[in-house]
Amino acid sequence: MKYIEKFQYITHDIPHLSHIEQVQKACEAGAKWIQYRCLSKNDDELLSDINVIAEICDDWGTTLIVTNHVHLNGKADIQGFHIENMDADFLAIRKMVGDDITLGGSANTIENLIRLANESADYTGFGPFATTQTKPNNLPVLSLNDYTDAIIKLKANDIQMPILAVGGITLNNVEVLMQTGIYGIAASGALNFADNFEEAYQEFYMAVKA
């Protein structure tokens, strides 16, 4: 099984911090997993960002995952991809990127989770837990019971895939979410808009690892 970090940080397009600045801050705070999520740039701009970000991640020993953009595989030092399309053919994507690349997906239902596990996803972001302005969507918000039920059903199906809660999570939510049996947490806005990024990151990290 591939290494999957329990606390994952996701970059976003925000006015006051570039993706590169977000990654620098996260790595300085101790981040070991960065998901570069940029859906607003062309390939040349993406690669320009990714090449700088990859160097930062390499300096800090941090895993770099890119949201979508699987066609960039092999063009930069990328360890994996996170596919947000819940209808994506993961078997085809796995065949395209090979077995060594880490492949994550997004899910909103237990059926999504089981399909991703059966189609060779290495981990899944399960959410949203709460409404979020960072990534607006029309998906149903999941309750704590939804997370608990999902973990129970995955175990009943002998599925070991790591499940991370994602979507509008605050520090106050971490303890109760981890008690559902999930593997970890992914966060973005709670860090990007915190008064002190490094302090917020480390508080999240300690809460997830507790």
UniProtKB/TrEMBL annotation:
InterPro entries: Aldolase_TIM, ThiamineP_synth_sf, ThiamineP_synth_TenI. The keyword Transport does not apply. Pathway: Cofactor biosynthesis; thiamine diphosphate biosynthesis. Keywords: Thiamine biosynthesis. It comes from the Bacteria. The keyword Isomerase does not apply. Residues 16-190 form the Thiamine phosphate synthase/TenI domain. PANTHER family: THIAMINE-PHOSPHATE PYROPHOSPHORYLASE, THIAMINE-PHOSPHATE SYNTHASE. This is Thiamine phosphate synthase.
